Q: What sequence folds into this?
């Protein structure tokens, strides 16, 4: 349970919350890369650059909305 808006709420509701872990690394040239993981399923996707990270997050959220 988490406290939100002055009332206790269940920590997670299917279809409402998605927990993602983002691991980011920056190389000597300043380029970003890493891995995005959806906690519930363990699904992982690698990304290179912020734009790719943005697309990966958007993709994971859209599949959550569809019930994945």
A:
């Amino acid at each position: 349970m988490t406290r939100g808006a002055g009332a206790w709420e269940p920590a997670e509701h299917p279809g409402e919350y998605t927990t993602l872990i983002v691991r980011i690394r920056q190389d000597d040239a300043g380029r970003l890369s890493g891995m995005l993981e959806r906690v519930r399923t363990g699904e992982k996707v690698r990304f290179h650059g912020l734009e790719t990270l943005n697309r990966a997050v958007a993709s994971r959220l859209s599949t959550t909305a569809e019930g994945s």
